[in-house]
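Thread amino acids onto this structure.
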């Protein structure tokens, strides 16, 4: 080979390089799609309880009267002064019988969600789990360590904050 003359690769080698590049691009796009689906699913799962807790139309207080295996019941007294209504409240966020909590009713249902800081963070718990899962995909599949660690820390902080505010 002469010096200065361009080296021409074979057609077979060029085709192999193109296919390898396309496979890398397909893998990257698939990992981005998986991470995006995880995050959208987390927001979707959280929104049903988060919306009433953040901007619920019917707000008030719930006095917990009794608890079963997975739910507690209580009397919801609206801020508007309407008659108290019997509602259910998830046991994980309800506290103990006799306790009075800030709450909001889910639209069209007899299910109340907590409307204080602990209840709002707890309603976003599915998003926290999705952030943790997406962080694994981002670090492992996309090799973006800083972004993945950031997503994981954000998800862990959201879950820990909800637990701390509901426990203490």
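Threaded sequence (168 positions):
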């Amino acid at each position: 080979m002469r010096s200065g003359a361009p080296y021409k690769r074979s057609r077979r080698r060029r085709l192999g390089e193109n296919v390898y590049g396309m496979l890398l691009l397909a893998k990257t796009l698939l990992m981005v799609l998986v991470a995006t689906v995880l995050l959208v699913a987390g927001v979707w799962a959280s929104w049903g309880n988060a919306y009433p807790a953040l901007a619920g139309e019917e707000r008030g207080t719930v006095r917990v009267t009794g608890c079963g295996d997975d739910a507690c019941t209580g009397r919801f007294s609206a801020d508007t002064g309407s008659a108290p209504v019997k509602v259910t409240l998830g046991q994980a966020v309800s506290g103990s019988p006799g306790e009075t909590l800030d709450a909001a009713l889910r639209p069209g249902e007899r299910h109340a969600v907590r409307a204080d800081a602990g209840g709002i963070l707890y309603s976003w718990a599915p998003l926290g789990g999705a952030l943790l899962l997406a962080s694994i995909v981002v670090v492992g599949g996309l090799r973006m360590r800083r972004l993945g660690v950031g997503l994981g820390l954000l998800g862990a902080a959201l879950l820990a904050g909800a637990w701390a505010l509901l426990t203490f």
